[in-house]
Amino acid sequence: GSSLSNYLLNKGHKIVVGDLHFNNITKKKENKNSLFLFKSDLTKEKNIQRFINFGIKNLGSIDVFLHCSYPKTNDWGMPLDKLKKTSLDKNLANQLGSTIIFSKHLIKYFIKKRSGNLIFFSSIYGFSSPNFEDYNNKIYSNVEYGAIKSGVISITRYFAKLYKKKGLRVNCISPGGIEDNQEKLFIRNYKKRCNSKGLLKSNDINGLVKFLINEESKHINGQNIIIDDGWSL
Q: Which of 28, 35, 89, 116 is most exposed, with minimal Cβ within 10 Å?
């Protein structure tokens, strides 16, 4: 999210960013009229509605919405034998559930406006199972992550089809693994399955986002676009 925000600001876009923390995004004098920060817990519906209204107020109109929220509980990532139902319920609700609620309010606004571009973020694990042999006891892929990400791909297609001919576009980006201080063994194993680079940097996604928000992609709708350096081949 922070990588995309900084990229879009540098390209001259006016943006509103919603989160509880803004560690890598800074409000500066030179971007005071193009960057607006909304600090809130966006897993709650009342805050989602307030966030959208905040965006409309400061931008005048919302043309594109990038949904890359990733709220996790403190015990996120437990192995299956240690997974608690209370934690599972909360993560499913906060990640996939809040994505659907976001969509409800955004789509209502976009339909009234008769135009809108909604872009979700999923993962290669949303359509493919992990290569478990690449992992060890310290790093692994939990089952709820794939379930949530496959759900994001599903709602992308659902909304694109349900609201066709309403001036609305809904697409999804599924990145491969992103560099995040993983262990060297995992990095090597992962790269063997890729074309050249292996794990991506967060800014490797920016060009694809630029394409999807521009007019050149106006006939792309309901698609899950994969950017993974050939991992899924």
A: 28
Kindly state the tokens that stand for 45: 């519906």
The answer for residues whose C-beta is within 8 angstroms of residue 60's C-beta and 6 or more apart is none
pLDDT at 175: 97
Asked whether the whole model's pTM tops 0.85, one would answer: yes
- Other beta carbons less than 10 A from residue 219's beta carbon: 7
Q: Which of 7, 125, 145, 163 is catalytic?
A: 145
Residue 26 has pLDDT above 90, yes or no: no
Q: What is the mean pLDDT of residues 187-201?
A: 95
Please count the CA atoms within 13 angstroms of the CA of 49 that sit on its side-chain side: 5
Whether 145 is a known active-site residue: answer yes
Question: What is the b/e burial string over 138-151, where b = at least 16 CB atoms within 10 angstroms of the residue's CB?
Answer: eeebbebbbbbbbb
